[in-house]
Amino acid sequence: MTNRRNPAPPAATLDINCDCKEYVVDYLTKSFPVRLMAVFTDENGNARSEPMSDENGAPALCRSALAARDSMIEQLCALPPIATALDAIIERFGVDQVAEVTGRTRRLIVGRDGCQVLQSRSPRANVAETRDFMDGTKRILVFSDAGGTGRSYHADLAAKNQMRRVHFLLEPGWRADAAIQGLGRTNRTNQASAPLFRPVTTDVRGERRFISTIARRLDSLGALTRGQRQTGGQNLFDPADNLESTYAKEALHRWFGLLFAGKLEAVTLSRFEELSGLRVEGPDGGMVDDLPTIQRWLNRILALPIALQNGIFDEFLGLVEARIDAARQAGTLDIGVETIAVEHYEVLTDTLLRTDALSGATTHLLELEIARALKPLRLERLEELYGFSGSRQQLLRNARSGRIGLLVPARSLLTDEGTRVARFELVRPLKHGHITADQLEESNWEAVDPTEFRRLWQVEVDDAASNHKRERLHLATGLLLPVWDKLPSDYVRVSRISARDGRSLLGREVPLHCVPDLCQALGLEDEHAFSVEQIVDAVLGTGRPMQIKSREALTLKRSLVNGAQRLELAGWSASRLDWYKAHGCFTEIIRYQTRLFVPTTSAVAVLAGLVG
User: Might you name a Gene Ontology BP term for this protein (predicted)?
Assistant: First the structure.
């Protein structure tokens, strides 16, 4: 007798939905307000409310609220599945291209036949996935907190995959320390190139609250480790991203003042107090002294409707960016270490500023000539980022310099009086910056047709790609703490000069016009003599006056006359006026005063004659 067994039936095709609807539905079911409330007046005359119950003591429910909740749940369950970020990435690029280093023991993937497959993962899977990414077999790596412990994913010189990493930060959460630890996994020593960090947020402004916590922690690291500043923010975030900085706190205080005065467009005082539960107006009708802290304000903003939330944040960030722009223009904005990648650098002069009596450590002032390879923004990338078809962009050409630029609307600044200052982002092949509407109107930028714009842009890109930019700078390096108070307080910029051959220098940049004061403060008055060309470039570039060594104590400064920048001499003697004019200077009587100017086109030759 033969024992026959029937074959097992084919496994049913998997149809599993792994989105987060069940959590939202659970929340609505348990937390949606459906109970009737009875309003009464307490002994102080304040309106209060309490839950109602029927004659049996059971909760009295509101039928309209129940219907609204059930309708919302029905609509939510009818929506198509929304995959998580991890599953969406794997589904889009495939398991052959994505290395997953997480704590999942099972995952749902789409097989080659297009059907869902439930895949088990052993603890050794993370080791294999990491190896595949570092060997270049898989181009994309996704790791979580569980997968980021004890592993490195940087472009190691010993690894096969030395391509530059682009690190996207998804769902940073409240734990800034965990996010910072994850960012450090792709930025280590002995790497071929530093990674590009890309924090990912949506258009909900309140989401910046989470990024702000990480930015604040990075800034605090930079402040605590002043001697080794590269452990701080590393310019990963813009200063405006730290919503708990000094600039943000000052802006919030002013925001409350504008709210109290009724000068904000996004929200009124009464509505803000009603929705947020924060008190700004005191019993006496004035603004309270103990205003809410910025952390408390940010948390309350997160609970507001999205449109209102965005409107409040736009005005608040306008105040923050106005303060940061002012600090940047004044040179007082401390952004930590800025790495300047150069092709090579040459030390022209090395001046010993100080030698420590105990340790023998020295402080030097180096004059460097650096050569930087220009990396212009290519036309294809420009169109990908901004596009030319929209009505918001303007294609411009500078009538004076012939340079080309793309004008894109940017967030408006908000003055302390509550006035909006319209602002634009001006994108050019080699740099981009911001310009206000008034500055744009007074400038020489004019519209140009798209064909000519593309041609001129490509010309600038081709010229820049074949040239190197050479510039000179002074760097205070070595033991800086004893001379920190002697360095210019209105120009705080810590730079790391990193050459292609591996050499690097770390120190504080000293503007040319500040070098004489620094040397004088350290008793080195005659150690530095600047060429006429350096003085002219420094005065025109910074607008700071500089002394010129001649028979008279002359000062060269930049002056605005009839809308044009001129070079003006101060401290000259009226008895030698004809001598100055004979050497190429010219005069102009302004408000009954004779002023002496140097032609900007031949300033170097004219000043060389005066000095000689």
Answer: regulation of DNA-templated transcription
SS percent in the chain: helix, strand, coil, step 5: 35, 25, 40
pLDDT in tens, 525-580: 655 567 788 888 888 877 778 888 777 778 888 888 877 789 999 888 888 899 98
Instruction: Read off the pLDDT of each residue in 201-226 and give the average, rounded to a whole number.
Output: 63
| 185: nearest Cα among 173, 201, 197, 200 | 197
558 burial via Cβ count (<10 Å: 0-12, 13-18, 19+): middle
| Domains identified in the chain and CATH numbers | 20-78 (no CATH), 85-200 (3.40.50), 241-330 (no CATH), 379-466 (no CATH), 530-611 (no CATH)
Predicted local confidence at residue 141, as pLDDT? 93
3-state secondary structure of 40: strand
pLDDT, one tens digit per residue, over 353-380 is 888 888 889 999 898 988 888 888 888 8
Q: State how far the Cα of 596 lies from the Cα of 579, in Å rounded to an integer.
A: 12
Residue whose entry in the numeric block shows the structure tokens 């096969």: 160
Q: Give the pair of three-digit tokens for residue 342.
A: 């150069």
Q: Which residue has the tokens 């004890």?
A: 150
Burial 86-123 (b: 16+ CB within 10 A, else e): bbebbeeeebeebbbbbebeebbeeeeeeeeeeeebee
Could you tell me the two tokens for 135?
A: 């060997």
